[in-house]
Amino acid sequence: MKSIVVFCGSAEGYNEAYMEAAYELGSMLATQNIRVIYGGAKVGLMGAVADGALAQGGEVIGVIPHFLKTKEIAHEGLTELITVETMHERKMLMNKLCEGVVTLPGGWGTLEELFEMVTWSMLGLHKKPIGILNVNGYYDALKALNANVVQEGFLNESFAKSLLISDSATELLDMMHNYTPPAVAKWLTERTT
């Protein structure tokens, strides 16, 4: 992979481990010559990812809606900062620019970005690996929900397994490099086979 989108919070969180993991991920991606694409902010985990990559001489592209840029949260030290009009346009462009997705801890916006990319994958709109870096057990509840959605018959197990989750950035990137997208159709059920 030559480029990865990183979704993460614009807040720092209460545990220092979140900021440290974000900075280390950015640094790791840069040392592997993987371009970082992210939301363009200088604050929170977003800023830490960018700063980690930039400190290693990495390429960092930010994609930020105009209304957020005017709130003065845009990172001015990036390789490139692209301004778009809407949040949806931001996600569409980030998807177009990337070959994979890593999600760090974050709030509703981060989860919405993750879920949209997962949904697009299920619908066959892309075949990119989607990873979650489970820092400090942050996504343990999501792992349980993912299993429950399968157990209750709302998700094929192959799609549940295609959501790559690890508490190690090194392991997660290895999983992403070796990713094979599910070959099962989204609507495949016992009745349609």
The total strand number stands at 7
Number of domains: 1
Give a quick account of the main beta sheet: strands, pairing sense, barrel closure.
7 strands, parallel
Distance between the termini: 35 Å
What strand line-up does the widest sheet have? 4-3-2-1-5-6-7
Tell me the structural class. Answer: alpha/beta
CATH architecture: 3-Layer(aba) Sandwich
Strand content: 15-25%
Unreliable stretches, pLDDT < 50, 5 or more residues?
A: none
Discrete helix count: 8
What are the main properties of this structure?
193 residues, Rossmann fold, alpha/beta
Describe the structure.
With 193 residues, the chain is of the alpha/beta class. It has a single domain, classed as Rossmann fold (3-Layer(aba) Sandwich), CATH 3.40.50.450. The protein has eight helices and seven strands. The protein has helices spanning 16-31, 44-55, 66-69, 87-97, 108-122, 140-151, 157-161, 169-177, and strands at 3-7, 35-38, 60-65, 80-84, 101-103, 130-133, 163-166. Strands 4-3-2-1-5-6-7 form a seven-stranded parallel beta sheet, sandwiched between helices. The radius of gyration is 16 Å and the shape is globular. The model has no long low-confidence stretch (mean pLDDT 93).
